Each structure stands twice: as C-alpha cells, then as structure tokens.
Amino acid sequence: MSTSIREKLEKIQELLERLTAESAKGIPIIVEGPNDEKALRELYITSEILSAKTFKSFIHIISEIEERGQKEVILLMDFDRRGREWTKRLTQNLERMRIKPNVLFWNGLLNLAGREIKDIEGLASYMKTLKKKSGLEDSKV
User: Fold this and answer.
1) How do the domains of the chain map onto residue ranges?
2) Cα Rg for the chain, rounded, in angstroms?
3) Within 13 Å and on the Cβ side, how many CA atoms surround 97?
4) Are 51 and 32 in contact (CB under 8 A)?
5) What are the phi and psi torsion angles at 73 (to 5°)?
C-alpha cells in the first residue's frame, strides 16, 4: 500500500465531507449532467444538485438561481476543456448577478485528482479504486 495513495484518499474524503457540510447549509451544487449528480449521490451527498444540461442555456441556469434567491452556489463542472470553460463562464455570469460562485471544491478536486479523472461522473469509481489500492475497501465511499 502506498502512503501517497492513502493520503490522497484522505484528502479527497475530507474535501467531500466539507462539500457535504457546505451544501447542507442550503447551497446548491451545479454539475454538468445527471451522471455527475448520480456520482455525488453515490458519495453520500444528499443536498440539492442541479444539472446544467437540464437547462436550455447558461441564462436559464443563472435565472433559476437568481429566482431562488441564492446568494451562493457550488460549481462542480468536469475537469476537461468544456468543464473548465463552463466553470469560467458561470463564474463570470454569477458574479455579475452578485451571486457567489464557490469553486473551492472544484479546484481542490482538480488539484488532487484532475489528472486521473476527467469528470465528476468518474469520482465515485475513482474513490473505490483508491480505497482498493490503499486497503480501505470496506470503508464508506
């Protein structure tokens, strides 16, 4: 078992625990598609998750958030080129609307696993793989 694999696993789990706690305060998480939402559910995130692909455009996403009176949203787009572009565009548009786009979790996951996974959809299986490699298979994903 590699110490670095266990450390990476622990850091990602800590980040996911903080994400769960932050979203439990009523801050919605915006992901690209329904499979990303499914992966987060597999990681025991039970709060509100909005799939950007279910909206017709960026304007519709932002309008929905504004209509709800949200002051902050958590952005968790994929780590590929499109995901990076969406994160940038959503951040800019949300800031113009005076809504805080929280990208701390996205940046954290990108730094920890961005070279090994390309999307949020792959996060749950990536965590299972890390657990298997670290000998912690039986622990909660």
Assistant:
1) 3-134
2) 15
3) 24
4) yes
5) -135, 155
Q: Rounded to the nearest 10 degrees, what angle do helices 3-23 and 104-113 cross at?
A: 160
Return the structure tokens found at 62.
């932002």
Closest CA to 119 of 128, 110, 132: 110
DSSP 47: S
CATH of domain 3-134: 3.40.1360.10
Question: Residue type at 13?
Answer: Q
The whole-angstrom separation of Cα 78 and Cα 14 is 20
Q: Tell me the two tokens of residue 43.
A: 């990681």
The predicted model scores a pTM of 0.89
The one-character DSSP state at 46 is -
Residue pLDDT, tens place only, 41-87: 999 999 999 999 888 887 888 888 999 999 999 999 999 999 999 99
Look at phi and psi of residue 61 and say left if phi exceeds 0, alpha if psi is from -120 to 50, else beta: alpha
* pLDDT given for residue 1 in this prediction: 43
Cα distance between residue 136 and residue 108, in whole Å:
22
